[in-house]
């Protein structure tokens, strides 16, 4: 018998048809919905394109019309604040920024520069062994401090106090009996070296200080080295550092104050380090002002920088005003403390009457002085003279006397001739060698190559400053954008340094033009502290050029070496005038590069 096969019941055909119909309907619905979505997107795109074309037409119509007179334009203050944000945002909250990024390279460089600096300042420091130019005044002031006799000077007393203290440190038996009566007067012993050593030490510290200042500005190692070489072989700075004068202290405090003010801008606001460095910056500014009032140009430049920096951090004027008060007191209080403390010691170290009695500005103070020849008698008790009002009167008296000094000098020069070094060079000292036509000289003149380098950088920055001003007037402010070519990168770097660059320009201009209102004689050495404010500007310009056009490190050092050659030549050529080497009359005449150098 055949086996019965299992017969499967066929499915209902109607059910299958209905399922297929449902699938077809769902598919058609999805297709229809997709087409609707695509159509909506196309319509949206068409509408956007229509709006773009309408906006273009409107802009074309507006550009064809002349601009209205009531158009608001960006002010130059706003433009400078906008440009300054590139530098500020990059280094804000970087309180852990190290000055030395590569210790293996930088420590040997700093040590080598410092050793060379001490060598150039201390070489033949004992010669000449006679009084040179302003040593007549400052050597006499030191003696009067030690003897306790009152004197009057047109400059604040801090540097003179340091000199008198160092005389006791380096020479405890210093007698203060030498008179410092005239230029060329022979010293009887070696006690004068106790007064020349402190100025030589301070002058030797200028080169490493300039290097560290540039590194705080984030300038490259080769350019920082080059700038320190400029200070190393600057003839007027070397000459002033070898004499009993106060100018090296002014040079040092100016550089240190600028360095600490730069450091403050790179720290987190209101942090412990921020308060510490702003306090130190105020102290160093006070030290510079307590040496010479001509450092006021540096203070004006710092105030300009702080106002723009604060305005960028706090956009509204209320918070800006609060921050100005905080920062103003943080700077001002240490400055005033140093200034009044220096006068406190000045008055208390001179209890006896002396040559300064004729410049009486306060009867109570003059009456408190003791005459060394008076017998010992009993006197009624008298309240001590207060330092603050006495210092204030003394400050006005110094400026009044300074503005009233009249008369000429054969070696005086006008401030307009200093930047080009076409001014009269100063013959500090000369001596004829017996039985010979040769003479020994000490001249004060700058290194013309260094002066011209810095003048070129200042002119470049001023032209770029004017270019930015013109672009703002035309309502086309220069923006800091991502650029790709090397030339564009160079200009972007210059833009990034606009804040500190303009600060150095303002320091330079104010420090120079201060002498336009001084009626008394001005000399070439007055330009040396002004030059120090322009050297960091030269570093900014050169660093931007090196970073943009010279990518290889070896080529950067080669450029620095080539630029240093003329500077070293300007130093070596005038060495006989710095270290008083004997020279013949023909050699003497060849050393005058310009006719205007003759007195």
From TrEMBL:
Topological category with respect to the lipid bilayer: Multi-pass membrane protein
Pfam families documented for this protein: PMT (PF02366), PMT_4TMC (PF16192)
Record domain ArnT-like N-terminal: where: 112-349
GO cellular component: endomembrane system; membrane
Keywords recorded for this protein, A-Z: Glycosyltransferase, Membrane, Transferase, Transmembrane, Transmembrane helix
One MF term in the entry's GO annotations: dolichyl-phosphate-mannose-protein mannosyltransferase activity
Subcellular location: Endomembrane system
Region span, Disordered: 38-67
Feature: compositional bias, Basic and acidic residues: 39-60
Domain Protein O-mannosyl-transferase C-terminal four TM: 394-597
Transmembrane segments: 105-123, 210-233, 245-267, 273-304, 324-345, 449-470, 490-518, 524-545, 557-579
Pathway(s) served: Protein modification; protein glycosylation
InterPro entries, A to Z: ArnT-like_N (IPR003342), PMT-like (IPR027005), PMT_4TMC (IPR032421)
Family: Belongs to the glycosyltransferase 39 family.
Full protein name: Dolichyl-phosphate-mannose--protein mannosyltransferase
Organism per entry: Anaeramoeba flamelloides
